[in-house]
Amino acid sequence: MYMHARTLPDKMMRFLANIFGAYKLRALVIVLAVSSIYLYVFPSPTLVYIAVVLLHAGLGTIAGIFLVVKLRGIFSLRAFQDNSGWLLIFFGALVGTALFFIGTSRPQWNWMYAHIALSFAGVAVLASRWAGRKGWMAKGHWRPAIRVALFLGLAAACGLGGWKIREGLWLRAYQIVNPSTPPASMEGEGDGPDGPFFPSSAQTANQEKIPGKYFMESNACERCHRDIYRQWYSSVHHFSSFNNQWYRKSIEYMQDVVGVKPSKWCAGCHDPSTADYLIPRSSRL
Question: Which end of the chain lies in a sparser environment, N or C, as judged by fewer CB atoms within 10 Å?
């Protein structure tokens, strides 16, 4: 009975190891590495990107279970050199698990970069071990160490290259280019007299009005963009609409004297939610 109690955990670990085989874990790591490159280099607010985020998180959870089964071998001192790559990936997985709870908004980016660095370093070490088993720089005292350094350098170069591509695409995609000269008359503002916000300079991609559900209370932005919201809240932009009585009275006076149309030129920037409507004196934004 005593011997059975001692060998039961070993049998259980062998059973789990057969289910979560090494080849399956390696395949998962490859898929996770490819998906992480896409997520980091090509961020975009699209359903495809969100789907890849969920795929990466789900496969990462499965890989974490694989690593738990492999835990005893990973921390074995006798096989430390062989398992150093898995050790780095294990710590990367721990940081990734923490990201589930703390999020990946800007204040947590250092954690996200730590997750990326540890995981990619682990993949580089594993790739180096694979190359060594194939006979590349396998013999000699220093060659294996040089091989590992080369793969780590390659991983770092890929990370730097991905960052350069990401920044270049992002800056080109979201660059605002002002016209070389201002319009000669009010008719040249925005989409012209036929535009939905004329004479405002405001424009939409499809030249249609903005749906009312697009506009929310300002503090609704704080849930996801807390740091940006706090910067805005403490700036003068916080008082750029009708909560600024100077601006409010100017608009009310303009509407009383010359009508609504000229006031819409101001509304395009200061209060786009009312750019197509008469602003009642009792309105509160």
Answer: N
Q: Over the stretch 201-219, which tens digit does the pLDDT of each residue have?
A: 777 777 777 776 667 778 8
> Which of 276, 285, 261, 280 has the alpha carbon at shortest distance from 202?
276
pLDDT the model gives residue 278: 39
User: Is-contact 120 154, C-beta < 8 A?
Assistant: no
pLDDT top residue among 197 and 124: 124
pLDDT, tens digit (0-9, with 9 covering 90-100), for 121-134: 999 999 998 888 88
pLDDT in tens, 52-91: 999 999 999 988 888 887 777 666 666 667 788 888 998 9
The Cα–Cα gap between 53 and 60 comes to 10
Q: Return the closest-CA partner of residue 242 out of 274, 211, 200, 202.
A: 274
- Distance in angstroms (rounded) separating the CA atoms of residues 218 and 284: 13
**How many angstroms separate the CA atoms of 144 and 227, rounded?**
46
Return the structure tokens found at 184. Answer: 């000669």
Reduced to 3 states (helix: H, G, I; strand: E, B; else coil), residue 190 is coil
Residue from 98, 69, 97, 73 nearest 85 by CA: 73
DSSP string, 211-235: PGGG---GGGGGGT-HHHHHHHHTS
Are the C-beta atoms of 271 and 242 separated by less than 8 Å?
Answer: yes
Residue 155 host element (H or E):
helix 143-173
**What percent of the chain has pLDDT above 90?**
24
Distance, in Å, from the CA atom of 92 to the CA atom of 114, rounded to the nearest integer, reads 7
**How many Cβ atoms from other residues are within 10 Å of residue 174's Cβ?**
7
Global pTM reads 0.60
> What does the block give as tokens for 211?
């749906």
Alpha carbon separation from 144 to 25, 77, 129, 147 (Å, rounded): 24, 19, 9, 5
